[in-house]
C-alpha cells in the first residue's frame, strides 16, 4: 500500500468517526428533549395540519393552573389581630381557622344561633373585638365569665359566649318565667321563644335558661387597702346584723364602705339582712375579692361578703337575715382569716 492510499484511509476513518459522533449527538438530543412538554406537539401540529394560531392555549404540566383556596374577605376583625391556629366554636366542635393556603376560615358559618360557644383568646384579642365577632354585647361576655370592670383577658383563656346578648340563669325553687324576667330585666315572650318554653310551663329547678337582653350587675372593682370610697347614705338603725359571731374588727372603713371582721377560718358567715343573692362567685382572683357574695336588700341597698373559704348559696337564692351563706376564709387579696364586709347605699354600722 503506497503513501496515497494510507492518507485516503486515514481521512475516511476520520470522516466516519465525525459522522458517528454527529449521529450520536443528534439522537441523544432527541432522547433528552421529551422531558420538555410541548416539543413533539409542535411537530404533531405540522404533520397533522392543525391550526397553530388557535386561541386556546395548550394545557401541559408547565402551564396548567393549580387550584387555590378562596381567600375569606369577610374575616371577623377580632380574628385578624393574631396568628390563630384554631378555635373552639359550638359546644364541643374544634374548628380550624387556617385554610389550606394560609387563609382563615369563616367561623360564623359553623356557629348555631342557639348554642353557647367556647372561644379561646388569641394574641391581640380584646373584649370589644370578640363581642363584635359573635354579635353580642361586651357585658354579656363579662357576665358569663365572671369578669370584673377593668379585667384583662389573657392569651389561651377560655371564654363562654352566649348566643345572644343577655345572661344565663340557673333556675331556683319558686322561679317562674315572669319572676325571672322581672328580676333580670328581660322580656317574658323573648324568654319563652328563645328557650322553646310554653307560657304555663313549670321550670325545672337547676335547669339553665338564657334571658335575651337580660342584665346582671357587673362585678365590683376591688379597692386596695388604705383608700376609701363611700360612707354616705342613710343610716338604717337595726336593719343589719353583724355577719359573723365573735372575732374582732381588724380594719375600719376602707374601700367601698367596708370593714374587715376577723375570726378563725371556717367561721360561719351570715346574711346581714334578708334579700336576694345577685352574685355568688367561687374560684379565681375575682378582682381581689376571692370567693364573694352580694345580696340585694329590700331597702335598695346591697351587702358584699368577700374572701370566703366557700359559698353555700347561689345566684338567685332568697336568703333571710342570719342565714349562713358561706364561711370565713383567706381567698383573694388577703393575709389573714376575715370577712371583708361592704354596705352599699347606706352607712356601714360596723
Automatic annotation (TrEMBL):
Gene3D superfamilies: Glucose Permease (Domain IIA), LysM domain. The keyword Transmembrane helix applies. SMART domains: LysM. InterPro entries: Cell_wall_metabolism_enzyme, Dup_hybrid_motif, LysM, LysM_dom_sf, M23ase_b-sheet_dom. Residues 117-161, 167-211 form the LysM domain. One of its GO terms (molecular function) is metalloendopeptidase activity. It comes from the Bacteria. The chain crosses the membrane at residues 12-33. Keywords: Membrane, Transmembrane, Transmembrane helix. This is LysM domain-containing protein. The lineage of its organism: Bacteria, Candidatus Tagaibacteriota.
Amino acid at each position: 500500500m503506497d503513501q496515497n492510499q494510507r492518507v485516503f484511509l486515514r481521512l475516511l476513518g476520520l470522516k466516519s468517526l465525525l459522522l458517528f459522533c454527529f449521529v450520536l449527538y443528534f439522537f441523544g438530543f432527541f432522547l433528552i428533549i421529551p422531558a420538555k412538554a410541548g416539543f413533539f406537539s409542535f411537530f404533531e401540529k405540522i404533520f397533522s395540519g392543525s391550526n397553530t394560531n388557535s386561541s386556546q392555549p395548550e394545557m401541559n404540566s408547565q402551564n396548567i393552573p393549580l387550584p387555590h383556596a378562596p381567600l375569606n374577605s369577610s374575616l371577623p376583625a377580632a380574628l385578624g389581630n393574631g396568628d390563630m391556629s384554631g378555635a373552639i366554636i359550638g359546644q364541643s366542635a374544634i374548628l380550624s381557622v387556617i385554610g389550606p393556603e394560609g387563609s382563615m376560615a369563616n367561623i360564623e358559618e359553623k356557629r348555631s344561633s342557639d348554642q353557647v360557644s367556647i372561644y379561646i383568646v388569641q394574641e391581640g384579642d380584646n373584649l370589644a373585638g370578640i363581642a363584635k365577632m359573635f354579635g353580642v354585647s361586651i357585658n354579656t361576655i363579662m357576665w358569663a365569665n365572671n369578669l370584673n370592670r377593668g379585667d384583662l383577658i389573657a392569651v389561651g383563656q377560655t371564654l363562654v359566649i352566649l348566643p345572644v346578648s343577655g345572661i344565663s340563669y340557673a333556675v331556683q325553687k319558686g322561679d317562674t318565667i315572669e319572676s325571672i324576667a322581672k328580676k333580670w330585666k328581660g322580656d317574658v315572650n323573648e324568654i319563652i321563644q328563645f328557650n322553646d318554653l310554653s307560657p304555663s310551663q313549670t321550670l325545672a329547678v337547676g335547669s339553665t335558661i338564657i334571658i335575651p337582653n337580660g342584665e346582671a350587675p357587673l362585678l365590683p372593682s376591688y379597692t386596695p387597702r388604705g383608700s376609701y370610697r363611700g360612707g354616705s347614705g342613710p343610716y338604717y338603725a337595726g336593719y343589719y346584723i353583724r355577719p359573723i359571731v365573735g372575732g374582732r374588727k381588724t380594719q375600719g372603713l376602707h374601700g367601698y364602705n367596708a370593714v374587715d371582721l376577723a375570726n378563725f377560718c371556717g367561721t360561719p358567715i351570715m346574711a346581714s339582712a334578708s334579700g336576694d343573692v345577685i352574685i355568688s362567685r367561687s374560684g379565681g382572683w375575682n378582682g381581689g375579692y376571692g370567693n364573694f357574695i352580694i345580696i340585694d336588700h329590700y331597702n335598695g341597698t346591697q351587702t358584699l361578703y368577700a374572701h370566703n373559704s366557700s359559698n353555700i348559696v347561689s345566684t338567685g337564692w332568697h336568703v333571710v337575715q342570719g342565714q349562713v351563706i358561706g364561711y370565713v376564709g383567706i381567698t383573694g387579696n388577703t393575709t389573714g382569716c376575715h370577712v371583708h364586709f361592704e354596705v352599699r347605699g347606706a352607712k356601714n354600722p360596723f
